[in-house]
Each structure stands twice: as structure tokens, then as C-alpha cells.
Amino acid sequence: MKREFYKSLRTNSHEEPLGPGGPLCAGCGGQLNLRLFHKALGENVVFVNAAGCSTLLATYPLTPLNSSWIYTAMACAPAGAQGVRDALDILKAKGKLGADQDRKVAVLTGDGAAQDIGLSSTMAAIHRGLDFYYLCYDNESYGNTGFQTSASTAYGSRTATCPITPSSPHGLLHEKRDLFEIWRVQKPPYLATVSPAYPLDLSETIYRAGKFKGPKLFIALTPCPPGWEFDPEWSVEIARLAVETGIWPLKEAIHGEVAHTHVPRKFAPVENYLVRQGRFRHLFEPKRDEETIAHIQATVNNYWSAVRNNEVSSDGAPAPHQDEP
Ligand code: SF4
Ligand SMILES: [Mg+2]
């Protein structure tokens, strides 16, 4: 993706929208994503937060956010966002709220609510064309209740509800549900996958989304040290490996038209990503699980083969590559 606005890290706001010392786990990728997302959105935001890890940020009556925040149940954050958007619009229509006092409305939710419990209210909000941002921090589990399986859990992962046992030695053998494609069916104005290891790419997608009125949706890979089992200092490295191995494609869809925003010049083998995480330890110890590793590699290879076949430009050149500086 040719960046129009975020050409270097100096472009990112130096204002910190998220106070330090929050109660989330050390190295939480969700907090990294939220910080970058909030910086790019600015401070005039109302966050509508579905129950999950990020709701632990707030200790009534305080939050560490430089913006407004309301809490909802897991099922209904987009419905809450509709109410906030309507209230703002009614106040504007009555002349009680100036244009400079308007707020962006952003749902903040984990993958449990996004993929399962809140999916129907999200699909309804997209269908209605609600003018809102939606950030799903995807830690591929129900993280704050102890790393139970969600529809977003990665193939081969150990979870609390799929432990490694003699009758289940490979981990979870369900494919991760493709939330990007579920949302893309409705052709929202803007949709993207992002990673905290690519802050310029992440910020640029929010800049690009800001040109559109309607649903603007983001799925952010969220390394989770306690659930994925790695040292908190490696969160950004793990997020980078997910992209470099091709496991986490960075892409956008504008009114349903997909383009990849960053394509690695050379893909690393998926085991470089898997071997760094305890949730996949059983694939390497006490002996390698060649079948499951090969399955994950084949899934990634098939995805990128399809991309190459579809994203060759009219002059026959492959889709452009661009590395984060
Ligand atoms: S459980 Fe994972 S996603 Fe939740 S706060 Fe901790 S590190 Fe973040
Ligand atoms: Mg989750």
C-alpha cells in the first residue's frame, strides 16, 4: 500500500491517549493495538466496549483513556454504538452540539464477542450502515477467562478447553473462522486487518478509513503472553513473525474490493512463528508433529497462491511489495 499520510513514525501523534500502569497483562498486544488505534483516531472518540479483557482498563469511575468510554455486554456493543451515534446526531440536529464537539464512535471488542456472542448485532449494524469504527483485538481465544477456545482460535493451538491429551495430541483441529470474509460479504466501506508490529500500516488504514461514512472495521492480531505462552517482551516480535510467515495477511477491503497492504518479500516458514509459543509446544515436543505443522504451512501456502493468482496486475507484474521501514 502506498501510504498517503503516515510516511514515517514521526507522523504519529506524540500525545499519549492511553495512560500508563493499566491492569492488563504485561506485553498485552491488545493494549498496543488500542494505543495505536486511539492515536490515529484522535481524542474525540466514544469507545463502546464489549465485555472482555479491555473492560478491565476501567475502574469506576475512571478509565486510562483520553476519551469517553461506555461498557456493554458482549452481545450488544454495536447496538450501544448505534445509540451513541443517534444521540450525537440528534443533539447536532437540534443545534445543541457544535460540529467541533462531535465524536467518532468506536466499538472495542475481543474476538469472542466479535466472532461468536456479538456477531449478529455487528452484522445488523453493518447492514444498517452505522457510521462507526470497530476494533476487534483478536487474541484467538476467550483470553480473560482463561484462554478457552473461540471461533478465532488457530489450528493446532492448545487451549483451556482443548488441552493436549493422549486422545487429543494435535491441539484444536478446527480452522480459524475468517471474520474478514464474513464482514466483507456485506461490502462495508472499509475493512482491514492490522498488526501492532506494523504501526505505520495500522495508522494508515485508520486514515484511509476516515474518508468513508459507514462501518469501518479492523481486526488486529493480538499476541497474548499468558495465553499464547511467551515472554511479554516478545509481543511485537511474535506479531511480526505472524506477518512474515504469511499466517496473518495485512489487507484492506474497500466496498468489498480486497488489496494487501503489506506483502513480505520472502515468507519465513510457519514454524518460526509456532515454535516461539507454548500453545503450540506439543507440535515440537516431545517429538515433531509433522502432519499438523505441514497442514498449517499448506493452508498458508494455498492462501498466498490464491492471492498471487488474483492480484497480478494487468501488465503481468506481481502485486507491489512494501516493507515497513
Ligand atoms: S489475557 Fe491476553 S489479551 Fe487479555 S489482557 Fe492479558 S495479554 Fe491482553
Ligand atoms: Mg479473545
Order of strands in the sheet with most strands: 2-1-3-4-6-5-7-8
How many angstroms separate the termini? 13 Å
Beta strand count: 8
- Which ligands does the model contain, each kind named once? iron/sulfur cluster, magnesium ion
Helix content: 25-40%
Classify the beta-strand content into a percent band.
5-15%
Q: Just name the CATH architecture.
A: 3-Layer(aba) Sandwich
Number of domains: 1
Helix-strand topology string:
HEEHEHHEHEHEHHEEHH
Helix-and-strand structural type? alpha/beta
Alpha carbon gyration radius: 20 Å
Q: In DSSP terms, counting alpha (H) and pi (I) runs of 4 or more, how many helices? A: 10
The rough form would be described as globular
What is the C-level CATH assignment? Alpha Beta
Global mean pLDDT = 94
And the CATH topology?
Rossmann fold
CATH superfamily label: Thiamin diphosphate (ThDP)-binding fold, Pyr/PP domains
The low-confidence parts are 312-325
Largest sheet features? 8 strands, mixed
